[in-house]
Design goal:
InterPro entries: Class_I_gatase-like, Peptidase_S51. With 242 residues, the chain is an alpha/beta fold. The protein has 7 helices and 11 strands.
Amino acid sequence: MLRQILLLSSSKVHGYDFLEYAANDICELLNENKVSTVTFIPYALSDHDAYLKKVEEPFKKWGYSVESTHNGNPLQIIENAQAIFVGGGNTFRLLKTLYDLNLVETIRKRVLSVGIPYIGTSAGTNVATKSINTTNDMPIVYPPSLEALKLVPFNINPHYLDSDPNSKHKGETREERILQYLEEEDSHTVLGLREGSTLWIKNNTAVLKGIQGARLFIRGKDPQEINVGSDLSFLLKEEGSA
């Protein structure tokens, strides 16, 4: 299976400009594929023009032009895309729009069959997985299904937060909520990406990159701490369910 995917927990990390912490990995992926124009999918936010301007700034600094699917025929733009970048915002809004515009299968085909690079951040990372069940976002709209692009055969929880033992907050922790999800029979393995954590996937190889580790949740097992540089290729072996 052709697959060149970079999944970021967030585009904004403390101490870094927009996308800056992942700049080297983004540019390496795009340069390897001789990409000159990045196709941006802005649907996680409502103001597409403003979002495009924000995304253009780092990519143009790195030497790439950016086109957005909202400035033309989205299906045709995706069909001709050299690489896809899907930004963060509200995951439910993003996935609903992808379904409304009939882009789900086209994106999947372009990434998994043609092999063009896919870069996602936050909501863009959520929709790259099996389903958006493990998003942190509020369901402000309702997509026809929670099933997502299925570029990888597991789920991700971007912006994963560890519980603070000194906090007076007594509500559920992120870990508890993910474990509750895993109680369901149709649940999927969940990779909790902390801020600054990035998953690099090339064909059937997956490596944790970035500046923070991650937390792995597999049904029936204790949560595992994953360090930067760890090989996570075994997560891609559930391809029959992808």
